[in-house]
Amino acid sequence: AQKVTQAQTEISVVEKEDVTLDCVYETRDTTYYLFWYKQPPSGELVFLIRRNSFDEQNEISGRYSWNFQKSTSSFNFTITASQVVDSAVYFCALSSDSGGYQKVTFGTGTKLQVIP
Amino acid sequence: DAGVIQSPRHEVTEMGQEVTLRCKPISGHDYLFWYRQTMMRGLELLIYFNNNVPIDDSGMPEDRFSAKMPNASFSTLKIQPSEPRDSAVYFCASSYLTSGGPNEQFFGPGTRLTVL
Hints:
- The complex is a heterodimer.
- The model of chain A has no long low-confidence stretch (mean pLDDT about 95).
- By secondary structure, chain A is mostly beta strands.
- Chain A has strands at about 5, 10-15, 20, 25, 30-40, 45-50, 60, 65-70, 75-80, 90-95, 105, 110-115.
- Chain B is mainly beta.
- Chain B is about 0% helix and about 55% strand.
- Chain B contains no helices and eleven strands.
- The interface of A and B includes residues 104 and 107 of A.
């Protein structure tokens, strides 16, 4: 069975602060994929990143960065210099071989509020 | 491309009525997913199709729910009879196969269903 835990239900930060969203996953498979999606107030989920289990390199995309650590089964997401437009619910997700690669398990989401 | 199209965007119905939700995936995508999102249960995968064939319907809550994909450009999710606990936002998503594992899913805007 696969599981994704996002322990932070809601986070509030003041604009320009850095914020890290935690994600811990569970799977018995050695090959798996991790994702982050953003759900802004408009409601539509938007893909942010995909990472496979064999690539532990951290990734940076503008103000966004992701830290993948297999040793702790974590795939954390950091927003640097947060902006009001970053306010959204962020979902971490997992798919693996035993679950059927196309079958993605989502975490419960972290609601981020950036205060101007 | 117009993205994933869902209709209606909002549906209000009375308990016991039949509800049909519609989805048009992105052209060329060979995977289609139906999700349900509620505050209590988060984002749940109900069923997904590959090349119009249902692959995994283990998330369909009960026999009142059924989904079809008669062709590559159209899918329906039907609830009959509807119950108040079916009130949720229903998302359709599509994706395509790559040699590098599961690809990102493209989500529609969702249908907000309210069953009175």
